[in-house]
Write a structure and sequence with these properties.
It contains 15 helices and 13 strands. By secondary structure, the protein is of the alpha+beta class. The protein binds zinc ion (ZN). Zinc ion binds next to loops.
Length: 331
């Protein structure tokens, strides 16, 4: 871990990061030091020092300092882990579009051939074969993608850079149902839902893109926002094609901008009803932010401990969910 962090900071020096994000120094402070206006607080006289040699910053105005990761934490309000993930995404080269398409095709091919994957989809209440095909759903059994793609002429480094394998050559996705995340037709990422005991959610270390399927959802004046792609899939299956998904309860600035790009839009937040209230807190916060951006927000209350997916999988019908939408409340 510490080694990876060191490598990350070498690959993207602090000064280079600041320049990419439009910071420019006003003068030299010392032999290795540059001074400019602090990006972390409002000031008119430069007090933000960057030591290019030590790869560190310090602001004499607000008293904050540290390394690149600390800077990302402070400037974007992210946790340590989120900051590292964001920097890795920033450094990830654009993968070859053909490589991702071939990967998606291989996953798709496996879906029907693996009884565990078929059983899992049934358990999650997803059965419409046309929809499964439309979403491009696939299955990563694990342990065979690397060999398959090597056979198609892709090199180790290419697969590693795309995040499809790790440094030992093992497939990144193993025993996961795969949703390709497309934007303007191009695959940007893969979301893999574990069907076993592994951590449930996994994306490749790169941007998750905008809202899922926004090209087909953005024109609706009423939009349902779900937390997960299985929620979206069962809602589409039940006829609620105006559903989109941010892949998680936390929206990126770009996703928030999409949701609020049309005045008068009404957004139904259909998040998990966790027993620990995390989902409810996230949707209330988001609803208030949307309202202040001029977008109407309604909070959909499902029966306790349900999300849209589990609600439908437990036998709810489209009419049941429509009633939940009718009863949805303003924050
Ligand atoms: Zn400062």
């Amino acid at each position: 871990m510490a080694e990876n962090l060191e490598r990350l900071k070498q690959r993207l020096p602090l000064l280079e990061y600041l320049r990419r994000h439009h910071w420019s120094p006003r003068r030299r402070g010392g032999r290795q030091e540059l001074v400019g206006l602090c990006p972390l607080h409002r000031e008119t006289r430069p007090s933000f020092y960057v030591n290019a040699h030590k790869n560190l910053f310090y602001c004499h105005g607000c008293g904050r300092g540290g390394d690149l990761i600390r800077f990302v934490e402070l400037s974007q309000g992210l946790s340590f882990r989120q900051s590292v993930a964001q920097l890795e995404r920033e450094l990830a080269p654009e993968p070859d579009a053909h490589l991702l398409e071939e990967t998606a095709a291989f996953y798709r091919w496996q879906l029907d051939r693996r009884p565990e994957a078929v059983a899992y989809l049934r358990q999650r209440g997803l059965q419409d074969p046309d929809l499964i095909e439309e979403l491009g759903l696939g299955y990563a059994a694990g342990g065979n993608l690397h060999r398959h793609l090597a056979g198609r002429g892709y090199g180790f480094d290419q697969l590693l850079e795309a995040g499809l394998i790790n440094g030992q050559g093992h497939d990144t996705f193993c025993r996961r149902v795969i949703f390709p995340c497309r934007q303007q037709g191009r695959i940007l990422n893969f979301y893999g839902r574990s069907i076993g005991a592994a951590f449930p959610h996994r994306l490749l270390p790169r941007s998750k893109g905008g809202l899922f399927a926004w090209e087909s959802v953005g024109h609706f004046s009423r939009v349902i926002l779900a937390e997960g792609l299985f929620d979206l899939a069962v809602l589409w299956q039940a006829g609620f094609r105006n559903t989109t998904c941010a892949i998680g309860a936390h929206l990126t600035p770009a996703q928030f901008a999409q949701l609020s790009d049309r005045p008068g839009r009404l957004v139904y937040l259909a998040f998990d009803q966790d027993p620990n209230q995390a989902g409810q807190q996230a949707d209330h916060q988001l609803a208030r932010r949307l309202e202040s951006a001029g977008v109407g927000a309604r909070i959909v209350a499902l029966p306790p401990e349900h999300d849209p997916n589990s609600y439908f999988a437990a036998g709810a019908t489209a009419a049941d969910f429509a009633r939940c939408l009718e009863k949805a409340e303003t924050p």
